[in-house]
């Protein structure tokens, strides 16, 4: 999603025809959010999380402004929140109002809706604990169900095509290819990869040491790297030293740390050039899906995978056990017990 997500057109349900239920608490919305935000900032929440709080609140606040006149915190009921949930799921246009990103007829994915609802739950739980609202309206509100096949990953052929697109004769092209290889080889999140410096790389141990501050769950972790990918990372570091005064691994043509949005745009260009943009979502996170899926398909155990990718909940890792029909056929052919018995030799036809 872009940083700015203004709405256009009419919301699903207008509030002019009926007013929400009144409450004893009449805290102004912005005052309530400012208190919540200042407390979370004082608690040491990550900058990325704080930024999500701000953007998710802005989306909700914009919708409220058009749907209800002068609504206060205590007047937000479960009905109001459910209307917003319906609006996000069905009543909006994806990237509406964002320059060059308007997609007609597309709504937010169930995952995005669930993330924004989770943010609102954090806020309303805080306000309820602070006794700023009489009743917590979000307690029994559930996110939309996700499709079983929602997790998309590259196929091996799609990844090969994508990796062949960058022009490695240029610095930017070689850097992009190394970054793609690293993401596919380790399952790192894009922000984790882009924050890597030379001090995080253990060449002899062939791994990355991620400190707690760089991890989503605030726990340090060690991420192994294959020898081939480590060699390319080492070569990129040496090239950086020759031209830039930086300790970052992935930098722009001017030596500044590479931005995630810039890489996403270049990745989409590679996907279009490879002709796979209509087959799979070409994004940095799809490399993470690819790594997780292929790790399990190749015989890796789920608990080791959880540690490598830094999932706080094993339930998140279990989602990658869901396989498509082709993957099931491949696994069956490889592991069926009869294949070890050599049935074609045992059964002889007359």
TrEMBL record:
Keyword annotations from UniProtKB, A to Z: DNA recombination, DNA-binding
Domain Core-binding (CB): 27-128
Domain Tyr recombinase, first and last residues per copy: 149-333
Gene3D superfamilies: 1.10.150.130, Intergrase catalytic core
InterPro entries: CB, DNA_brk_join_enz, Integrase-like_cat_sf, Integrase_catalytic, Integrase_recombinase_N, SAM-like_dom, Tyrosine_recombinase_XerCD
SUPFAM superfamilies: DNA breaking-rejoining enzymes
Annotated stretches, region: Disordered: 1-22
Keyword ATP-binding: no
Family designation: Belongs to the 'phage' integrase family.
Annotated PANTHER family: INTEGRASE_RECOMBINASE PROTEIN MJ0367-RELATED (PTHR30349:SF41), PHAGE INTEGRASE-RELATED (PTHR30349)
Entry protein name: Tyrosine-type recombinase/integrase
């Amino acid at each position: 999603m872009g940083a700015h997500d203004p709405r256009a057109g009419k919301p699903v349900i207008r509030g002019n025809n009926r007013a929400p239920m009144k409450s004893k608490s009449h805290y102004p919305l912005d005052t309530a959010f400012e208190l919540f935000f200042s407390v979370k900032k004082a608690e040491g929440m990550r900058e990325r999380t704080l930024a999500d709080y701000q953007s998710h609140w802005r989306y909700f606040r914009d919708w409220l402004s058009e749907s209800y006149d002068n609504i206060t915190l205590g007047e937000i009921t479960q009905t109001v929140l459910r209307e917003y949930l319906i609006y996000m799921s069905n009543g909006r246009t994806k990237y509406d109002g964002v320059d060059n990103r308007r997609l007609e007829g597309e709504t937010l994915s169930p995952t995005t809706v669930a993330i924004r609802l989770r943010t609102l739950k954090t806020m309303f739980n805080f306000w309820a604990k602070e006794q700023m609202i009489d009743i917590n309206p979000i307690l029994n509100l559930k996110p939309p169900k996700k499709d079983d096949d929602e997790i998309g990953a590259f196929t091996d052929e799609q990844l090969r095509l994508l990796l062949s697109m960058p022009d490695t004769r240029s610095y930017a092209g070689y850097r992009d290819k190394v970054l793609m290889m690293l993401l596919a080889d380790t399952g790192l999140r894009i922000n984790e990869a882009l924050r890597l410096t030379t001090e995080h790389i253990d060449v002899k141990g062939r791994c990355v040491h991620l400190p707690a501050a760089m991890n989503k769950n605030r726990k340090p972790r060690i991420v192994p790297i294959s020898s081939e990918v480590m060699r390319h990372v080492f070569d990129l570091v040496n090239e950086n030293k020759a031209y830039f005064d930086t300790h970052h691994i992935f930098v722009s043509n001017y030596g500044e740390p590479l931005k995630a949005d810039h890489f996403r745009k270049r990745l989409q260009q590679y996907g279009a050039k490879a002709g796979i943009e209509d087959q799979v979502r070409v994004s940095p996170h799809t490399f993470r899906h690819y790594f997780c899926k292929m790790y399990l398909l190749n015989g890796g155990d789920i608990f080791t995978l959880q540690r490598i990718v830094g999932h706080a909940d094993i339930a998140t890792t279990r989602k990658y056990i869901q396989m498509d029909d082709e993957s099931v056929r491949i696994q069956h052919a490889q592991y069926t017990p009869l294949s070890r018995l050599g049935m074609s030799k045992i059964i002889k036809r007359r």
